[in-house]
Amino acid sequence: MELNKRDKELLERTRKIFEGNIYPSEGYLWSPYRCVTPGRQWFNGIWNWDSAFHAVGLAGMDTELAKESVRGFFKFQHDDGFLPDCIGEGGSIVDTLSKPPVFAWACEVIYNADKDIEFIKEMYPKLKRNADWWYNNRCYNGLFFYDAEDKKSEDYILHVKFESGWDNSVRWDKGITEYWAIDLNCFMVMFMRAMNHFAHSLGLKEDCIIWEEKERGVTDLINSRLWDDEKNLYGDANKFTGEISAVLTPANFMPLFIGIASKKQAAHMENFAKNNFKEKMPTVSFDNPEYSTDYWRGPTWLNVAYFAAKGLKNYGFEVADKIKENILNMCYNEKRGIFENYNSETGEGLCCDHFSWSCVFIREFILNW
């Protein structure tokens, strides 16, 4: 692959930042494994879906370190399969909530990189317990929702928002526990596909049938319950009334990332990308009255922007390449670092200036587009 000057420089910048965020193998709760923090000086510890994303990025750089990132976090899996939110350097564990289930996808990326069947033998039962936990604790009438374990706490709803990973997103201004989240259900499809892949590799034929049935069930429900024929969009849906939220975010494009949208449905979503997101991918559409530069209420976050843009790319839409170029130019032109998120209008870097998963998804945009 021949890279231009911008992309070569971005890859080098991301490599240096990523390497600077690696914890050594001794002295921490997750030892003897090396793990990656979201950003030294800003984040003291390791986080759930961050660790999975870090493993995705590391799979193409250092597969052994990628595996350690997974193994280190799974040291803290509960017996029922639950995975906590984060583990602090000083020994604190936040287990009032979990995070979006992307570890199985990360393990699949690692497996595809080096075909280490022993790693899959090790992780398969752990991932299976985690899938069981989601079904037992976060599934209603066939689809999945976010929640938290501390239902009597004053911070309960805040923790539910944290479990989504979208914290203060406009998505949740009118509630969260009552919604089937579009991205969560797509992540679960990715989970089941990965598990089917592992089961096939391990020769577990009966398990393959189970995972295929589960995937088909969730996929059918996404297309029947989370698609609005009048608004012509995918979205979060109230699990009691069935109403689809009108809030437009990159999460709405996740069915394109997993490839379950029809060409007609995808074309409608392309129109939203062009008209409401201005060929960029802020965390809420520019025309939303709540759009701002406040964390998840407007800035561009590279993980969710990548999923949305790659979904559009999967269907051959030119807008995908324009989104990719806009985002990479934004990251390249901001010379102070690789940031947690970016002002989606000016390109100014916001929050942590050496953020690991932003490095991961810059690399995904460049190397796995």
Commentary on this structure:
The protein has a single domain (5-367), classed as Glycosyltransferase (Alpha/alpha barrel), CATH 1.50.10. Helix content is 49%, strand content 7%. It contains 13 helices and eleven strands. Strands 1-2-3 form a three-stranded antiparallel sheet. The N and C termini lie close together (12 Å). The model has no long low-confidence stretch (mean pLDDT 97).
CATH class: Mainly Alpha
Oligomer: single chain
CATH topology: Glycosyltransferase
How many structural domains are formed by the residues?
1
Give the tally of β-strands.
Answer: 11
Nearest-integer average pLDDT: 97
Radius of gyration: 19 Å
The proportion of strand residues reads: 5-15%
Judging by the overall fold, what is the CATH architecture? Alpha/alpha barrel
Count of DSSP H/I helices: 13
Order of helices and strands, N to C? HEHHEEHHEEHEHHEEEHHHHEEH
Regions with little confidence, pLDDT below 50 for 5+ residues: none
Instruction: Indicate the structural class.
Output: mainly alpha
Q: Strands of the biggest beta sheet: in what spatial order?
A: 1-2-3
Helix content: 40-55%
Largest sheet: 3 strands, antiparallel
End-to-end separation in angstroms reads: 12 Å
Shape: globular
